[in-house]
Design goal:
83 residues; mainly alpha; 2 helices; 0% strand; disordered N terminus
Length: 83
């Protein structure tokens, strides 16, 4: 049974088209499938690798959001006495 979201072992998936919420939801699905069991060894490995890639993608999105937020706060954080 092939799963298009699992990819093939060793393959680096292109996740750039996924937003944070999409990647998070897919990651939760991967975790659910792994916890439920019933996958072959190859399917489990592919799902694990996909999950790792999704987790890294989510973290990168969160890091980017944090950087944007810090930049916005920094831009506002001028000397309040000079207003």
């Amino acid at each position: 049974m092939a799963n298009e979201t699992a990819g093939t072992p060793g393959e680096t998936p292109d996740l750039s088209h996924l937003g944070y919420e999409q990647a998070r939801d897919e990651l939760m699905d991967v975790v659910r499938r792994l916890e439920t069991g019933g996958l072959t060894l190859e399917e489990s490995l592919a799902a694990w690798e996909r999950g790792e890639a999704l987790a890294k993608h989510c973290q990168a999105k969160l890091d980017g959001a944090r950087a944007r937020l810090d930049a916005a706060i920094g831009a506002e954080g001028g000397d309040p006495e000079s207003s």
